[in-house]
Amino acid sequence: MAFSKVVSSVILVVSFLSPTFTLAFPGPNPGFSPGGGGGSGGGYAGLCPEFYEFSCPQANDIVMSVLEKAIGREPRMAASLLRLHFHDCFVQGCDASILLDDSATIVSEKKSGPNNNSVRGFDVIDEIKAKLEQACPQTVSCADVLALSARGSTVLSGGPSWELPLGRRDSKTASLSASNANIPAPNSTIQTLIALFNRQGLDETDLVALSGSHTIGVARCVTFRQRLYNQNGNNQPDATLERTYYNGLKNTCPRLGGDNNIFPLDLASPIRFDNTYFKLILQGQGLLNSDEVLLTGNVGKTMELVKEYAGNEGVFFEQFANSMVKMGNISPLTGSNGEIRKNCRQINN
Ligand code: HEM
Predict the structure, then answer these.
(1) pLDDT in tens, 256-285
(2) Atom of ligand 1 nearest to the CA of 223
(3) Are 219 and 288 in contact (CB under 8 A)?
């Protein structure tokens, strides 16, 4: 019910944009690229929300229809797809490098520490891409499919929507080493988290807002075990963990074994995109060390921001939307750089 309301508002926003664009750029223009950067409507580095207005006007509708089915079948899929866009953008920019499988010329990022046995959702991306290829052959990039899927997944989980700059092209390369180096580990300190976000042009506000993605989805035992049994090398649990919560976590995550047992990142509302994640952190119920240190890391203004977002969902939603646009604008390939892959898993021949 809430879903269809948000979906129709997305459609409204899209159709609202079209007359404006028609006046400025009349006529169909497949592969149209406006060039330039900055400027109007949150566009950046050649991306713009109207990019497929003529070449594939139904692109977002196709993405949404596949997402509705996939997330309807398995609500967690929204979280998995949101995370894929993040893991794409932090490695060589938002260029769909994460989707490439191993081949003669590619060492896939799928086997990196942060990704291995963890990232998922590739079949859904394939299904979206196949439908887009039928409707508008070689027009919509896999990188844009990831960005559209991240937004759609957020909306379908009850979160905010945003005007999404489009026109990213797909890489012909991947980087396993950058995937290992750039994506933060769950036991990161606050200093490391801030540094890795800064490296991507993102600040503390983006770090806290985007961590709010952990309002949906799950994590494996192996990513938070250290907090339960040996947080500081002294065989003691992390003292910031609330007692009852800690006991529950130990049931899912024994000292030995059960590495792949999963636990919700937001225990209170694991499939609803809301600000509960921040409220839970205030109660000592954040799952990952990287969640907890936003409050207790004692650097900069991250603590203040956690409290602000816990107290005001509207402010969180607004900042989340802004930060998602910012993250989605990391080093896109545009113009004649990269390509529009036919199959997201491999570069074109
Ligand atoms: C701030 C640094 C971050 C760290 C250290 C971190 C780490 C993690 C880890 C360890 C998991 C569990 C993976 C597993 O057990 O397989 C996870 C899940 C998740 N992360 Fe993050 N993350 C961070 C930021 C982000 C950002 C910026 C986003 C999105 C914009 C995001 C979205 C998600 C989502 C939605 C899930 C659940 C995925 C699922 O259920 O399939 N994370 N994260």
Answers:
(1) 999 999 999 999 999 999 999 999 999 999
(2) 10
(3) yes
| Whole-angstrom distance, CA of residue 116 vs CA of residue 121 | 13
Classify 125 as helix, strand or coil: helix
Nearest residue to 84 via CA among 222, 205, 179, 164: 179
Higher pLDDT, 23 or 330: 330
Active site residues: 87
Nearest-atom number in ligand 1 for the CA of 217 is 40
Output the CA angle 59-62-66, nearest 5 degrees: 145
Residues 149 and 81: their CA atoms lie apart, in Å, by 6
pLDDT digits (tens, 9 = 90+) for 36-75: 333 333 445 689 999 999 999 999 999 999 999 999 999 9
For ligand 1, atom 17, the nearest C-alpha belongs to 219
Query: Nearest to residue 273, comparing CAs of 213, 208, 206?
Result: 213
Atom of ligand 1 nearest to the CA of 218: 40
Query: How would you label 84-94 residue by residue, b for 16+ Cβ within 10 Å and e otherwise?
Result: bbbbbbbbbbb
pLDDT over 90 at 21, yes or no: no
Supply the mean pLDDT for the chain: 90
In the predicted structure, residue 27 carries a pLDDT above the cut 60: no
Q: Could you say which DSSP state residue 107 is in?
A: -
Ligand 1 pocket, CB under 6 A? 76, 79-80, 82-83, 86, 118, 120, 184-186, 188, 193, 207, 210-211, 213-214, 216-220, 223, 265, 288, 290
Q: Which two tokens stand for residue 208?
A: 């806290």
Distance separating alpha carbons of residues 215 and 218, to the nearest angstrom = 9
The CA angle 243-255-184, to the nearest 5 degrees, is 80
